């Protein structure tokens, strides 16, 4: 398996992991109650744009409890159930057209640290199992991503990684090595005092071990809270979002930073592909000055290329 360069592919909410850190999230009792989060993709070839898929996440106490998604292109429906044990997510089950198609499981040590994450995909004819095992040390967390055909022997190593977190559980350094293509890459993140990812730089290592910068993404922010981040912190916790951040889509226009920033993102710039793409982010506020909808568009040579949106429902 080749570890791909960034391409234009979308991924909704990443199914990651959670620990007791969720209890750290407080909510003003006067705030409206968050009940749902909607993620929608659009067909930009039609005017006005039409929806191609929508996922509706049901939220309780800021955590995802379940979700339903519909693809209007191929009429595929998916349902997701989230199960928790002792405030930690234990498993996520996905049903495609009412048939169990994916099982995700999480294990922790006595300190609440994520020790493994396993994903089992099957379509009735074949199955694929992926496992991520984490080893925690004082200053670095090591991860091994492997695959198995039988669920017993995980001899097919996809990626070996090391992750460095700061005192606020922000991922400041990530390095990965692919045994498949003998390629080593690195990521460096710069966070502001509000836990917002100001910039992220991507590097590839030459044959002599010299890091060469491939591209950089940078972001600006509003004062409003990023509700998507609130959901992720309650469901997955900041530490575990950082440990599994690399499992999100590697597409530039997925704007993965939206999942880990405390404040609403207002703009993004990227030097990837000689800065050929431009990004437009439009945020809508309610009467309480809260971000209730964000619309993300990517333009190439002045023409809209992709679009998706996030919407939050309050009571």
Protein model, in words:
This protein has one domain (20-314): Beta Barrel (Porin). The protein is built from three helices and 18 strands. The N and C termini lie far apart (46 Å). A hairpin with a 2-residue loop joins strand 5 and strand 6 (99-108). Residues 1-27 have low confidence and may be disordered. The protein is globular, with a radius of gyration of 19 Å. The chain is mainly beta and 315 residues long. The longest helix has 10 residues, at 227-236. It has an 18-stranded antiparallel β-sheet.
Unreliable stretches (pLDDT < 50, length at least 5) are 1-27
- The count of DSSP E runs of length 2 or more, i.e. the number of strands, is 18
Number of domains: 1
Overall CATH class: Mainly Beta
- Summed over residues and divided by their number, the pLDDT gives a mean of 90
Separation of the first and last Cα atoms = 46 Å
Backbone shape: globular
Rg result: 19 Å
Give me the strand/helix succession: EEEEEEEEEEEEEEHHEHEEE
> Please, what is the oligomeric state?
single chain
* Portion in strands: over 45%
CATH topology (level 3) name = Porin
Fraction of helical residues: under 10%
The CATH architecture can be given as Beta Barrel
**Based on helices, strands and strand pairing, what is the structural class?**
mainly beta
What's the number of helices? Answer: 3
Describe the largest sheet.
18 strands, antiparallel
């Amino acid at each position: 398996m080749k570890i791909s360069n960034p391409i234009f592919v979308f991924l909704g909410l990443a199914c990651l992991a959670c620990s007791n850190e969720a209890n750290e999230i407080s909510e003003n009792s006067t705030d409206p109650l968050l009940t749902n989060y909607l993620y929608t993709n659009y067909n930009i070839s039609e005017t006005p744009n039409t929806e191609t898929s929508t996922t509706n996440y049901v939220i309780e106490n800021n955590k995802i409890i379940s979700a339903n998604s519909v693809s209007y292109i191929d009429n595929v429906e998916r349902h997701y159930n989230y199960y928790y044990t002792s405030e930690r997510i234990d498993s996520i089950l996905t049903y495609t057209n009412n048939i169990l198609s994916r099982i995700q499981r999480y294990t922790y040590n006595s300190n609440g640290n994520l020790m493994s994450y396993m994903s089992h995909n099957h379509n009735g004819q074949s199955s694929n199992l992926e496992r991520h095992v984490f080893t925690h040390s004082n200053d670095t967390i090591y991860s091994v991503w492997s695959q198995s055909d039988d669920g017993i022997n995980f001899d097919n190593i996809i990626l070996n990684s090391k992750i460095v977190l700061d005192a606020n559980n922000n991922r400041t350094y990530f390095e990965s090595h692919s045994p498949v293509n003998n390629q080593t890459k690195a990521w460096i993140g710069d966070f502001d005092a509000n836990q917002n990812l100001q910039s992220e730089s991507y590097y590839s290592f030459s044959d002599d071990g010299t890091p060469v910068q491939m591209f950089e993404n940078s972001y600006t922010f509003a004062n409003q809270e990023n509700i998507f981040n609130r959901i992720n912190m309650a469901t997955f916790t900041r530490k575990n979002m950082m440990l599994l951040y690399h499992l999100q889509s590697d597409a530039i226009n997925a704007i993965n930073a939206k999942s880990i920033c405390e404040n609403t993102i207002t703009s993004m710039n990227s030097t990837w592909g000689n800065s050929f793409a431009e990004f437009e982010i439009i945020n809508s506020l309610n009467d309480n000055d809260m971000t209730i909808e964000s619309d993300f568009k990517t333009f190439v040579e002045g023409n809209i290329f992709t679009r998706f949106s996030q919407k939050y429902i309050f009571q």
